[in-house]
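To whoever is on call:

I kicked off a structure prediction for a single chain this morning and the downstream step that reads the tokens threw a length-mismatch warning. I double-checked the sequence; it's 104 residues and nothing unusual in it as far as I can see. Pasting both halves so you can look.
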Amino acid sequence: MSTALLATKLYVPPLRAYLVLTFILERRIMEGYDLEALLRQVTCPALFVQGDAAFGGLEDHVAERAADLLPRDQRLKIQGAGHNVHQTHPEAVLQAAVQFLEPA
């Protein structure tokens, strides 16, 4: 898909769409963020849902590091799911969320 077409679909000027996409493709999307510091600030239980790295989800070592920083976390890895796990596997995510939220 061309940048201009993508920009039209996103309702942003083509130059801005190009800059945003370049930022993402060059893996600078999180530049300036200290993700570990942000995760350390989470004080409530967390459900960490991970897609499969082969389909665009987080690699295991990244997910493990993030999960280690969360207090009282529960981790769910969905095989065959990519980055948008909630869209591609909504039933699995919903089931995990319901189980996670049920009182102990």
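Update from on-call: the warning came from a stale cache, not from the record. Cleared it. Sanity check on the structure: The chain has two domains: 1-32, 33-104.
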